[in-house]
Amino acid sequence: NNIVAIVGRPNVGKSTFFNRLIQRREAIVDSVSGVTRDRNYGKSEWNGKEFSVIDTGGYIKGSDDIFEGEIRRQVELAIDEADAIVFVVDVEEGITPMDEEVAKLLRKVKKPILLVVNKVDNAMREKDAVEFYNLGLGEYFSISGMSGSGTGELLDKLVEVLPEMPEVTEEVEPLPRFCVVGRPNAGKSSFINALIGEDRFVVTDIAGTTRDAIDTKYNRFGFEFNLVDTAGIRRKAKVKEDLEFYSVMRSVRAIEHSDVCLLVIDATRGFEGQDQSIFWLAEKNRKGIVILVNKWDLVEKDTMSTRDYERKIREEIAPFTDVPILFISALTKQRLLKALETAVEVFENRKQRISTSKFNELMLPIIEATPPPALKGKYIKIKYCMQLPTPTPQFVFFANLPQYVKDPYKRFIENKLREQYNFSGVPIDIYFRQK
Ligand code: GDP
């Protein structure tokens, strides 16, 4: 997917615009799967072209007294990581010094930049908007985030300027694609180095679907896999700022491009907000997930047992808790083989197909014993179910009154399914539909 970053100073209406972009699609997705919506990252689609959107502003807390330097770094990161940048300004305020700062950075960039003048709610504002030509970014789009006017033209242009994605040629037996993600200093590079070594058994370099994500094929401990490397991890100097935004921005492309995400966390710091953001990013993209608690060599084992540690993490990632958690050390090379084995297992779990007859044989008696609770005196009958032929596990249950099936029952079904089949580390979708 192409990645579009929305930048601009606080309170210009970035999040309203962001919500508008992801709404059309997400509203549909959310209502059936019950996925929690992320404030800052979502998928959008226009004229049949899908892209990911990141609202950089959503990651800034207390955005009123935001430092200029902060915005600057955000814009720089967006320039590095995104395929197109939407720069939002506010017609009520006119051009501010901060807008000029941002424009200065953007003028040097080769990537598509779209200047959006927001809050253009009437004809007078339309005249005021003209001053934004002075930013030196060329033609602008005036929109009203409130009413949505002007968004259509903007989106037409946006999907037109997004780079073409090369066709992904499916291999006959595709190798698992893994990515290693985590916040700065969690030990990602150390883990990768410990795993593949300096000698790097590189078989081939396959250019990925985008300029930045590169698959490199490895053979380690008898496992063949592709490691998705991003320029972000490979090339960039360490980011000092320990902000949620950086981790997410740096992980999006790698996560979208992989099958299984190895989320490295720093044992000495625990599972924190940033780790959670990356976890939900992977979950939202329906990728396999393995959590690697790194630097376990540094943890005093008397005070913190693996069991306590594991329980804490599972609390943080609820309700999707069926995820392998391993305690490793990139430094002493502890359990690296296990980490790889688990990643391959999660990949297989995610690929598995359950035959419709077996699935019905198993699930229908469970449903019969515990049917969905009747609603408004109406009984809900489920007669038939099946796994859909989708890349990620999705199951559909055909019912007379699917709209009456509530989330707790969905979770009950999901738990039963996970008890019977190994979907460890794999997000699954369950739908109820009219036969
Ligand atoms: P990255 O930013 O996630 O790629 O993190 P690095 O791999 O650069 O590691 C950050 C720091 O943690 C470095 O100083 C590493 O030497 C150290 N480190 C990484 N893994 C371990 C580990 O398993 N144990 C210990 N004690 N230190 C580690």
From TrEMBL:
Gene3D superfamilies: 3.30.300.20, P-loop containing nucleotide triphosphate hydrolases. GTP 2 binds at residues 182-189, 229-233, 294-297. Keywords: GTP-binding, Nucleotide-binding, Repeat, Ribosome biogenesis. InterPro entries: G_ENGA (IPR031166), GTP-bd (IPR006073), GTPase_Der (IPR016484), KH_dom-like (IPR032859), KH_dom-like_a/b (IPR015946), P-loop_NTPase (IPR027417), Small_GTP-bd (IPR005225). GTP 1 binds at residues 8-15, 55-59, 118-121. GO terms for molecular function: GTP binding; ribosome binding. The keyword Nucleotide-binding applies. GO terms for biological process: ribosome biogenesis. Residues 2-166, 176-351 form the EngA-type G domain. PROSITE patterns: G_ENGA. The keyword Aminoacyl-tRNA synthetase does not apply. Belongs to the TRAFAC class TrmE-Era-EngA-EngB-Septin-like GTPase superfamily. EngA (Der) GTPase family. Associates with the 50S ribosomal subunit. GTPase that plays an essential role in the late steps of ribosome biogenesis. PANTHER family: GTPASE DER. This is GTPase Der.
